[in-house]
Every structure is written in C-alpha cells, then in structure tokens.
Fold Aldehyde dehydrogenase family protein.
Amino acid sequence: MATTTLSTPAAPTTLKAGTSWDDAWRRCLAVAPEAFRDDRVLNLWQGGWQPDGLPLPATSPVDGRPVAGPPRLDAEAAHRAVRASLDQHRAWRHVPLPERRARVAATLDALAEHRELLALLLVWEIGKPWRLAMADVDRAVDGVRWYVDGIDTMLDGRTPLPGPVSNIASWNYPMSVLVHALLVQALAGNAVIAKTPTDGGVACLTLACALAAREGIPVTLVSGSGGQLSEALVRAPEIGCVSFVGGRDTGAAVATAVADLGKRHILEQEGLNTWGIWNHTDWAGLTAAIPKLFDYGKQRCTAYPRFVVQREAFDAFLDAYLPAVRTLRVGHPLAVADPSDPYPDLDFGPLINAAKAKELTDQVGEAIDRGAVPLHRASADPGRFLDGQDTSAYVHPVTLLGPPPSSPLHHAEPFGPVDTIVLVDTEAELLAAMNASNGALVATLSTDDPATFARLAPQIRAFKVGHGKARSRGDRDELFGGFGASWRGAFVGGELLVRAVTEGPAGERPPGNFPEYHLMP
C-alpha cells in the first residue's frame, strides 16, 4: 500500500516582499507625513502634531531590530495636553450627531483603506502573526461601524461627559480595543485622549490617530511613563472618565485615584481565566478547541491558561490535549522561502519582548524545581525562523501539572504560552480552583450534563462562563466586564459602552463593579 507523507514548507530564507520594517516606515511617511518624522513619531495634542518628548529606544520582538519608540512627555506637557483636550471637548460635545457620525465613518473608511499597513505595523511592533494582525484591524473597523449605524437610540436622553475620556491601555490590542474605544467615545460626543503603551504599538496608533485627526476627530495621543503622566491622565480635574486596560497592580493604583475623586471609570484588569472539566466525554470537541486557545501566544485578557480537571478523567484529558498542543506553529511572522510566498500560517510569534520571555521561562523553571510536572515542552522549529535571527523574545508552548502555590503560575495570568493543570476530586475543589484569582473575565466548564452546568456556572466568579466553549471579549452588542478584582467601574460592550461614557438621568447607576455596589446588566 502506498503511503502519503505530509509536505512541510521550505525553510524560510527571507521576508515576504514589501514587508520589512523599512518598507512599513516609508509607507507611514507617505501616508501621514504630519505624524512621522525621518526617525520618530510625534505626539498629537492641542490640535497638532508636536515634536516634543524624548523618544525611547525600542526594538521589534520579531527579530530584535530597532523600531520607533514612544516620545515621552514630561508631567507639565501632559497637563497642557489635557487642558487642550478639554477645550476640544467643550466644542465637540455641541457638534450635531449627524456630523459626528459622518466624521467617524470617514475615519473608518480611511482605516479600511490602510488596513494592511496598520496590520504590518502590528506584526513588527507587537509580534502578531499576519492573520491575527489583520483581524485586530478589521474588528476595530467593523465594530465601530455597528455603533455608527445604531448610535441614535443608544444616545436617546443622554449627553456627553463634562470632560474628555482618558484611555490607558495595554499593548496587545491597539486597534480592536483602544482605537475602537476611542472612536465610540468620540461618536458619543467626547474628546478622547490615548496614552501609547510603552511596550509596543506606537507607530500603529500614531497612524490610526493621524487618520482620525484628519477627519476632525478630537483625539490626543501622548507617550510617557505612568509616573510622569498619571497625575494628568488620571487625577486631573479636566478628565471626565478614565478607561484603563492592564494588570492588577497598576489598575489598583488607578482605582484608588478615581475612587478618591469620584470620577467615572472603566478598569479592565487581569484574572486567571480557567477551563473546568467535570463529568465530560466530548474529547474531540476539546481537541479542536485547544489550538485556538493559543492564538497570539495567550497574550490576551481572555486567554485560558488554567485547566481544572477531574482526576478520574485525567488520562482521557491528556489523550485529547497533548495531540492538539503538539500541532501549534510558532515562528517569524514574515519569514518565507520565496518573497512571493503567502504569509506564514502561524498560531503565534514572539512574546512582547525578550524580558517577558525570560521572565516566563524563569517562572517555568522555578515551578518545576518546586514540584510542578512538565507534561509538554515544545522546542523551536528552525524551519520557521530566518537563519541567525534574534529569537530571544520567543517562548514555545509549555504545559505543567500541579504548579506549586509559591509559583506565580499558580495564581496569576502568565500572559504567554504556558498552560497549567490542577487536578480535583470534588465539585467544591473544582470551584475553588476555578476561582483561584478572586475574579476573572471569562471561564468555561465542560460537562455533559446541562443541569450540572446550570448549577455550577453561577458559582464561577467570571463575567462570562461558556458551556464547553471558549468565551471572548465579544463584539458589537455583546457585553463585557469582570468579577472580583478583574474589573472596576462600569461594564462595557454593546450599548453599555456608550452609557459608560455619557450621562443619563439623575441618579442613574450604570451596571458595573463599584466599591459601593455591583450591578449586573
């Protein structure tokens, strides 16, 4: 009988044609010369692009080459930028809704026109594979179009906030989270301020904001350290709302500040999202789901890094899990054998930087030293990298059984391709393990019995709980928030995003997680 062998792509030797960092930078200079200089990006405030701030050196996680770094403002300049944004806000809030809608729609058309350049910048700046970079851009554009089409009813009886919305977001989703939020906030009648993440996405955000500013959107874009800018971007009296996406330590400081000031806020923080297995037999479905859970190396707020597994089903779980995790493809997002080849089909590329890769690798090593059992440790495939390239930001999939309580991997989100597994014998243990981080954004419980799911799911402290399927942040009319320490302030998604950045009837209590109350939609 003849045998069939699967063909493997030829080893990469070069970049796909037209995708080098220099190519991307030249295109930025041509598309938005007002925002890009020969060797740096500019800050946008007081209605113009300002050559202020000292640019920090930056490198691409893809191969360690230099890329544009954030031009960091000092505290005084940040306060001036906030005051100027308030002036924009006072004018913009009186612009009729049809004109606001038209300007936002024109911005979306411009973003769509340059979607491939925006995606290429995401590849170089934060290491997203091409497929996921394009999805980030497209989700931003398509998501805001949904609001453009339905904003009239969402704003019925509502007015803009007294001051601009200040946005401080992490680096992992510059378009589908940050730019999406900026444009919806502006559509609702607010001027908007964004701080560029220190770790990446500066050029992508600069280009997106340049396209928005051309259409008259009142956007301010500034860079700087949290210590220098937080007084202006969080505590300044001009700010009408603070929208934050990031880790719990920084988020806690922001939460304290906004609570003291009584300021409107939306604070999305990390949590350990868990996937529970209890009286479950659909192993084929689990095998199909595993690779998707590793998209972008689990550098997502809705990633699932923890499996809580019924002990008596552990062997069946491994039979379903291990073959799937061994199929994951990791490599250089732009490396091909021939310049005309299509983009590599990858699950993920590098982590955000070499320092994060080392930190995570060290945590894995320490966990094993303290008793965790390595069930799977993938090695690099040389056929997915360029010869001699810097690979210091790459971490390959790891799966650990029983992370020790002393390890950060036991209780915190790793934000990288590391899965941990905890075995349990009772439902009480299952729930305790799934609630290990005092709140999460999403969770999933795989169980064959709908009644068991209906009984256990309400006891899982996550905003969204899936029955055998992964949950995500969602788009359009899907709501989003978090339980416990994973969220502070107003919930968002759908019409709740508009309600969070506008004022309604006197005494209105927006759905959210606040110090004085927790209100579900």
User: Anything to note?
Assistant: The radius of gyration is 23 Å. Confidence is low (pLDDT under 50) at residues 1-7.
